[in-house]
Write a structure and sequence with these properties.
By secondary structure, the protein is an alpha/beta fold. It folds into two domains: 163 residues, Periplasmic binding protein-like II (D-Maltodextrin-Binding Protein, domain 2); 98 residues, Periplasmic binding protein-like II (D-Maltodextrin-Binding Protein, domain 2), CATH 3.40.190.10. It has 13 helices and eleven strands. Strands 1, 2, 3, 4, 5 and 11 form a six-stranded mixed β-sheet that branches. The protein has a five-stranded mixed β-sheet with strand order 8-7-9-6-10. Helix 1 crosses helix 9, helix 1 packs across helix 10 and helix 6 crosses helix 8. The radius of gyration is 18 Å and the shape is globular. The protein starts with a strand and ends in a 13-residue tail after the last helix. The relative contact order is 0.22.
Length: 283
């Protein structure tokens, strides 16, 4: 059986899926047609139910629980992995939270997509921020440098590059969430269509776990593949990216990870960011 599979070209995703899509492990008779896209494009494809299996931000998943269900393996959760709110001007970097909230409604803020977890966290921390400009995640730094926006929310490898460009951190939105909930931040997960046979869903879950475990056991096996899709990243940045976003939660969410996802949904619904869901969130 051939299934469509969407994930980003970022090192954390290519590290996770390398063994699976290149048949380095037992795929139990399944094959995969791979689609590479940034997370917000994948979110939009999931709204159209284009893909059988896909990486999704947890924010987007809140709107898609009728059609998709979360697998136990492949997720990106953790401590110290959240998006950063950054700026290009000292006048903003020196503001405290209260002052920034007071000004937030007047500031142009670049976000990597409406349904990203980054935008969810920005909405939790700064509900007054309404003037948001959606753009590709890799365009935000340039937009700040060109004064097209006042603030930007960065994700992925931009955590490692913004300071080299003279940009300044205002707040780590992941740390804000950790202080609020005392749990890891759920960034993205791997979802599969609910209407697929249960046997297939369980197979895919096992295969992804096997692929992650293979990657940890053979960390250099997929490096040429990972580098070929990364956005002009150095070897050092690629390795930092993987170390930051691929961890024990990528092998299995376990109880702590599931609790973090449930807390995410509870807090987001409480403040009206997402609709209430009646579906079971986990496979």
């Amino acid at each position: 059986m051939n299934l469509s599979l969407g994930f980003s070209p970022c090192p954390n995703d290519t590290f996770i899926f390398d063994a699976m899509i290149h048949q380095k492990i037992d795929t139990e008779g399944l094959s995969f047609e791979v689609v590479f896209d940034d997370v917000e494009t994948l979110n939009q494809k999931a709204f159209r139910a284009d893909l059988d299996i896909t990486k999704l931000s947890y924010h987007a998943y809140a709107y898609l629980t009728e059609n998709y269900v979360l697998l136990h393996s492949g997720s990106a959760l953790g401590f110290g992995v959240g998006p950063l709110l950054i700026c290009n001007k000292n006048e903003y970097s020196s503001l405290d939270m209260e002052s920034l909230r007071h000004q937030a409604s007047n500031l142009r803020i670049g976000i990597p997509g409406k349904y990203t977890t980054a935008n969810f966290l920005l909405s939790i921390a700064f509900p007054e921020a309404k003037n948001k400009i959606e753009m590709k995640f890799f365009e935000i730094e340039s937009a700040l440098l060109n004064n097209q926006i006042d603030l930007g929310v960065i994700i992925h490898e931009n955590r490692f590059t913004y300071q080299d460009k003279g940009l300044k951190k205002i707040i780590d939105l992941g740390e804000y969430w950790e202080d609020l909930t005392h749990g890891p931040i759920p960034l993205g997960g791997i979802m599969i269509k609910r209407n697929l046979p249960e046997e297939i869903k369980q197979k895919v879950n096992r295969i992804i776990r096997r692929s992650v475990e293979y990657a940890f056991d053979h960390p250099d096996s997929g490096f040429d593949f990972i580098r070929s899709l990364s956005q002009e990243m150095s070897t050092e940045v690629i390795k930092k990216h993987i170390e930051l976003y691929v961890n024990k939660f990528s092998i299995d969410l376990d109880e702590l990870g599931r609790k973090a996802v449930e807390t995410f949904f509870k807090e987001a619904h409480k403040v009206g960011i997402i609709p209430e869901t009646k579906q079971n969130l986990f496979l």
